Request: fold
Amino acid sequence: MQEDFHYYATYCAAFLAGFDHEECLDICYSAQFVDLCSRTLLLKIGAPQNAATTQLQLEMMDASTDVLGLQDITRIWASFHFLPRDLYAEKAKRTKRYMDRYRLICGPNGELLKKTVELAKGHGLQHAGIAMHVLADTWAHSNFAGTPTLVINNTDEHFYEFREAAGGEANGNASTDLDSDSEGTWVKVRFRHSPSEPDDVEKGLYSNSLFQGNEVSIMNLGHGRAGHFPDYSFAKYKYLPAWGDYHELIKDNPSDYRKAFSQMVYAMKFLKGSIDLFETERYEEEVLEKYGERIDRILRKRQINACSDWKEFGEELSGQEIPDFDVEKYQDEYIKADKGEKENTFIGRFIKGALAQKGMVTGEIFKSGNMIAGFSKTIQQGKGLLRFFNK
Reply:
């Protein structure tokens, strides 16, 4: 997912869960900050680099893909962006090496999602925002894994998106690429490796990572082989994943993002204390009954960036202005704070939540007998928990 959902839609969900305007801003800022809290940023402000929740492209290009390097990459991407759905999933007649990768496939409503939301309970708005980022990404990044692996994450020429017929979406010369039906047309997606060129929604032309036959090439991380396309809320697509024995898989983002939004409202009601229990496969249906049509219009609109639409919706809900996201907003506060007070700053509280989430996910992967993410150990020191990851 992108800023439109992680920042503005998360604000909307937090408000509908009962948080006030300022609390919503803290939650949605933290949710979006997950996509920006890199080692480069942490180094700049003098913060612990093992709290990184993402990696910049330049950082990934320099990243090692030996055993320890892959563990470091996996700890970040599996913990925050590609939360595994089932660490104990079974698939007949596969080697352990294959199964270790297969069991990291992301998806919604897994046991780790429940642990993620419960871990954030009672630990502040920053940790709540982190949990909402992870929750949302289980829907957007479903079927991909947060570790470099060709066998799980590769895509091939058989990759099509569905263009709805309403409003002339299913039209043009692309209709000959595949059969059409009464509701629209399946159109072949064309991928290119051109990071400087924006995706062209109307032409169905999207940038992706270069094909690399090396199983653990950084180009095979997450949904890089499908570019940003899986992040777009309007995207309904089908392809032939190798892990699915090349059976056609259909991913319906508008439907999934709708569930993601209502599940965020439900989860944040739990975090706020309005409900006592968080259960998977539960959604806030009343929100969808009241606002479902408005949400669907935003989700199905063919646009790369839906920030303005979600922002408008959020400001109508609260009657308050939602400021644009500013990555530097809390950096001076952290830099200028005395050493003993840094953990009480906004970024300091975010770091505590990030370390807790990364440690929990890494520990659960390790406990399942899977060493792809390495291991972590937690010790008590002073007033807080410190987590150390193998290097």
